[in-house]
Amino acid sequence: QVQLVESGGGLVQAGGSLRLSCATSGNTICISAMGWYRQALGKERELVATITSSGSTNYADSVKGRFTISRDNAKNTLYLQMNSLKPDDTAVYYCNAHTIFAISGCNGMTYWGKGTLVTVSS
User: Fold this and answer.
1) Sheet with 18-26, edge to edge strand ranges
2) Percentage with pLDDT > 90 across the chain
3) Sign (positive or negative) of CA dihedral 9, 90, 93, 32
4) pLDDT score, position 73
5) Region 57-66 average pLDDT
6) What is the distance between the alpha carbons of residues 92 and 75, in angstroms, rounded to a whole number?
């Protein structure tokens, strides 16, 4: 399996910044694209940002220009730099990893972390 552990969440005032981290372990060689999702109270989980194994990124319109997704493959860690935070960014943020199945030992499953809470006060 692949294990994902998020960290870096907390309470921050509007306009502030946080950097989330997602540490991966297990069969990390199987990981291709990764992403950050978030789920606010009473709402559906939504995509925040994705990054491929080659570094190509995509962002939700709501976070473009404010958030930056990156990955350090040597450290097997995914990051989300969040700037100019708004109260609407308040949510549990989840790390996600897609795995391939063409390589022996990889099962093609998608994995999720347990989330880290980000609270932005106004």
Assistant:
1) 2-7, 18-26, 77-82, 67-72
2) 92
3) negative
4) 85
5) 98
6) 24
**Mean pLDDT of the chain, nearest integer:** 96
Tokens of 36: 């950050």
Cβ–Cβ < 8 Å for 39, 29? no
Average pLDDT, integer, range 49-78: 96
What is the phi-psi region of residue 53: left when phi exceeds 0, alpha when psi lies from -120 to 50, beta otherwise?
Answer: alpha
Burial class (CB in 10 A: 0-12, 13-18, 19+), 78: buried
Q: State whether the Cα torsion 63-58-61-108 is positive or negative.
A: negative
The pair of three-digit structure tokens given for residue 117, joined into one six-digit string:
């809470």
